Amino acid sequence: MKKVLLSGNEAIARGAYEAGVLVACAYPGTPSTEILENATQYREIDSSWAPNEKVALEVGIGACFGGARALVTMKHVGVNVAADPLFTLAYTGVRGGLVLVTADDPELHSSQNEQDNRNFAKFAKVPMLEPADSEEALAFTKLGFEISEQFDTPVFLRSTTRISHSKSAVTLGERPTDIPQPKLDRNPAKLVMLPGNARKLHPVIEQRTLDLEEWACQQPFNRVEKGAGEVGVITSGVSYQYVKETMPDAAVLKLGMVHPLPKQLIRDFAAQYSTIYVIEELDPFIEEQVRAMGIEVIGKDKISICGELTPGRVKMQLFDQESPLEDTSAELPQRPPSMCPGCPHRGVFYELKKAKAYVSGDIGCYTLGFMPPLSAMDTCICMGASVGIATGISKVLPEEERKKVVAVIGDSTFLHTGINGLMDMVYNKSTSTLIILDNRITAMTGRQENPTSGYQLNELESPRVDLEQLCRAVGVKHVTTLDPFDLELTGKVIRAEMARPEVSVIITNRPCMLVPRDNPIPRPPLLVDHDKCTGCRACLQIGCPAIIWDAEKKKSIVDPIICTGCKVCLQTCKFDAFSECGDKS
Amino acid sequence: MSQINNILLAGVGGQGILLASEVISEVMLLAGHDVKKNEIHGMSQRGGSVVSHLRYGEKVYSSIIPEGEVDILFSFELLETCRYLPLLRQNGQVVVSDWKIAPPAVARGVQPYPENLAEKICQQFPASVVVDGLNLALAAGNAKTVNTVLLGALSNILDYDRELWLTALQKMIPARLLDVNLKAFEAGCQARSIR
Questions:
Q1: Segment A247-257, tens digit of pLDDT
Q2: Is the CATH number of domain B4-190 3.40.920.10?
Q3: Chain B residues with CB-CB distance to A310 below 8 A
Q4: How far apart are the first and last CA of chain B?
Q5: ipTM score here?
Q6: Per CATH, is A346-518 categorized as 3.40.50.970?
Q7: Hey, which residues does B37 pair with through a beta bridge?
Q8: I need a labelling partner for A72 at 20 to 30 A (CA). Which of A410, A427, A498, B128 fits?
Q9: Distance between CA atoms of A44 and A42, rounded to whole angstroms?
Q10: Are the beta carbons of A157 and A144 closer than 8 angstroms?
């Protein structure tokens, strides 16, 4: 059959289709998001966004208990959120197969930490497959469902950014035609995890890991590639590609399953070579277990525990070579990401900075409020954390400082895990202010629908969560909804609510500029009248990419191609220099 | 190991870099090569630097190009080109659009945009091609076809049948935009280096 180029994420979605998956569920998160965006193209799969990863996994578990094959996907930190159901699902096992994709992000391309989720496999006692390219991403997804049903266990599939977002050639297969019809099957001894039932299952899952280990020693996904010297390399995932690139003559034990490790296979391999390398990204996960078997290896004493690997890094770190690259970063201006022109968050952070607020931040596009010139974010830990952190820091501060604390959170992140923090704020009588930046979409990951957007992943309309009603329902008395394009109003309300000695919520209600259905009529771009512009640079303090300082004329200019006409800049100008294009007044 | 060819695409989010790398990948797949490509999504969508690695040959392992082994730096913006020049091999080539996009610190007047970048590129890599991408795209009828103009210029350097490029463009570009993109591609094929 013809080969096509697929990304790792496209291949995982295709693998789910070819495995006969009926339900796919996720919360978006880079680098995992495109898996569900592709799964939804297969109409046979019920694909949906959940409000968070825990719910996504629980929906997957339900589908699997009903007898269907279910795919659940998330980024690495999402597994922290889903860990609670995961660890007990490991005890119950499955009915239909369940594959949980964790997409890790070595190098923190788009994440708040660099955790190595292979540790979760060992911790939760769940087998983990790790593909090294798109062909394997597809094959291992299908294999994962077979293992899941054969060994009565959920199965992890671990991807990394360089697997998820790399394209390579894949051979497509077909979807099975004999998918069993899900139906109820009561089995409380297996599925009700009271102590009495769970206690009986614990030895069962310990034996399951031993059985898997023995079985995995015989399977083609753990394979030895013969070499020409005295060097043997144990590796897995994308690191395998870098080993082949930099050490083409070395013998390689390529592990397709990283938990449990095939110990006998490793022993037999190691016995044949005088030098054994373990090449793996992040933690010494394989290395520590191989060392515990009494085998001497070279691993993290050479290969960095931090950051992703590249062919160059493997070569340099392993053989102590200097980097051939000169560092040009000092001479060349950096180009970090910034809020888009017309972003509804810009004015809020501009006003928060003016109000000298201490901003407890959260995860989303608005985390870019940290960047200069807005520079209005003081903490950011994880999804939903802004709310609890604001409560806690307020508890310990003297009254004058307490008033400065403001939490900011996006609509999707608020529903993800922020709402619990707001209940705590009300229940425990916090005096903090929470700003919900409602742009009606999960924007940072590429504009995915969520319960506030009014649409589902499959583009069908759906009821929209009324954030104002929700806040009032948990007991917040002071809820103000406003348009963040109105700077004066935004600033006034922020200062008033900061001063209020009670919990309050401000909802800034303006859709993401990049969602066409919410921005049907384009606004004309703005123009700077250079007779009026005094070069005071006030407009540059909002950090809009459409406003550019003309160093020769010492005036601001607007790039009409990217200006969206939001008029936030216009409100910062004391000299009335901004006007709409074509507006002669 | 058989010869692997390495193209690094660089530019700014929103310039059509990923579509360009899709088209080149398709050409190489049609030509019978093993192909791998790689890019970082996520934060880079917000106007940040965008890089795409593209490798083809008989058998490609790593999708990341080893440092110092880039054959062609195919770039959409001058400053971004210079950022990645150190990754080129010694007699490598640059294909670049003569276009400047101010990064945030430059737009705010905090830092100057470096001067004479095109000269520096051509001095260091004499076989480079600098194309007036924006004006050629405007002449073709759409400012957003700069990426396709550049693909035309790139196709002059890579020795593949013109038909492969046209087939790839037809496959990758929506029908309503195909005509203007074919014009832009042709303009790129005819373009002379302005340096």
A1: 999 999 999 99
A2: yes
A3: 62, 64, 66-67
A4: 36
A5: 0.95
A6: yes
A7: A167, B54
A8: A410
A9: 5
A10: yes
Q: What are phi and psi of A499, to 5 degrees?
A: -75, -20
Q: Does domain A223-318 have CATH number 3.90.1300.10?
A: no
The candidate with the shortest Cα–Cα distance to A137, out of A109, A107, A90, A171, is A171
CATH no. for A3-216: 3.40.50.970
The per-residue pLDDT for range A401-429, each reduced to its tens digit, is 999 999 999 999 999 999 999 999 999 99
Element (H, E) at A385: helix A385-396
The pTM for the full model equals 0.97
Q: Using CA coordinates, name the residue in chain A closest to B47.
A: A337
Residue to mutate among B64, B75, B134, with most A CBs inside 10 A, is B64
Say which CATH architecture domain A526-580 belongs to.
Answer: 2-Layer Sandwich (3.30)
Identify the sign of the CA torsion A140, A142, A144, A150. negative
Q: What are the residue ranges of CATH 3.40.50.920 in chain A?
A: 223-318
Q: Check CB contact under 8 Å for A337 and B85.
A: no
Distance CA A264, CA B12 (A): 50
Radius of gyration of chain B (CA): 16
A38, A407, A468, A476, A496 from A504: Cα distances, Å: 40, 11, 11, 6, 10
Cβ contacts of B67 on chain A, cutoff 8 Å: 310-312, 323-325
Q: Which residues contact A500 (CB under 8 A, 6 or more apart)?
A: A431, A433, A478
